[in-house]
Specification:
It comes from Hymenobacter coccineus. By secondary structure, the protein is mainly beta. The chain has six helices and 16 strands.
Amino acid sequence: MTQRYAAARRWVGALALGALALPAAAQSTNAPKYSNDFLNVGVGARSLGMGKVQTALADDATAGYWNPAGLANQTHKYDGVLMHSELFSGIVKNDYAAFSMPLDKESTVGVSIMRLGVDNIADTRNLINEYGYIDYSRITYFSVADYAMLLSYARKIGRVEGLSVGANAKLIYRNVGNYANAYGFGIDLGVQYNHKGWKLGLSARDVTTTFTAWSINAGQYQQGPNSAVANGTDPVPANRNEVTLPRLVLGVGRQFKLPQQFTALVSTDLEVTTDGKRNTLISGPVSINPRAGVELGYKNLVFLRGGVGDFQQITDFSGTKVQKGQYSLGAGVAISGLRVDLALSRLAVEALGQSSQTNSLIVSLGYGFK
C-alpha cells in the first residue's frame, strides 16, 4: 500500500476510534436519547433538498455544520450562507447563518450560528382571576428556543493530496422562557478525502460527548393558583446535566459528466448513533440510518435535487408494520458566486394536491467571492 493511502487510513482510523471509545463510559451517566437533537435538523436548502447527504460533499460555509474538514476545500476565498425555514406549518422557526474564510493556503476558519425555536407560547396559568372569572389580560407569552455556535477550523494535509481534517468547538444555549435555561459545550471532528473524482468523508459529532447543564427556576413553576406544581400534582423539575453521546457519519459521493453539459452528483451517507436503540432501518445498541441523494446540474448554473432517508417502521391503520422514509426535493441557481436554493420538506411533498395541509419551504442564500 502506498504512503498516501496508509496516511489516509491512519487519520480516518484515529477519528473513528476516538469517537467510539467514549460511549461505554458515558452510558453510566444515563445519557438521554435524542439529547440536543435540534442540532441534527440540518442546514442549507441545497443539503436538505438532497436528503442531508453532505459529509463527503460539503465545500462551502455549510461545511462547518456537516463536516468541518470540508471548509479547507471551499472553492471561493470567502463564503457566507443564510437560511430560514418554518416547520410544522410555521410553528417552529429554524434560522441559520455561516461564514468562512482562509487563514493561509492550508487553513480555513468558519463560524456558524443556529436557532430553532417556538415563539409566542401562551401561559394561561393565571387566566382565572381571584373572583373566578376569565381575564384574558392575565395571559403572558414566552418563547422556547435552542441556540448553537460552531467555531470551525480546517486544514489540508500537505503530505496526502486531497486529504483535509477539521474540528468544531460547539457552544450551546437552550432557553425555556423564564422557567429554565442550559449551557453546553462539545467538539466535532471531521475528515474529507478527494481522489480521482471520488469524495469520501467522515464526521464524528460530539466526539468527546457534549455536556449540557440545565438550571431550573423553581419559582416560575409555582406561580399562579392553577399551577399543577402549586397544587402539588407535579414535581418541580430538578437541575441536571445532560450528556450527548457521539455519532459517526460516513459519506461517499461522485460526480458524473453527462451529455449536453449536464452533470449528475450522487452521494450516500451512513449515520451511526450510539445512544441506544432507535427506530431506524438498522436498529440496535448502535443504530444505522442510511441516506441517499442526487443533484442534476446544467452548466453549473441550474440544479435539481432529490433525496431519501430517515427510514422508520410505523404501524398503519390496518395494523400492518411498514417502512417509510423521508423524501425531499430541491432546486437551485448559481450565478457569479450567488447561490439561491430551495428545498421542499417531506410534509410539503405529502401535502401536494391537499388543500387541508400547508406546504413548508426551506430557502437559503449563499455567496462566495474572492
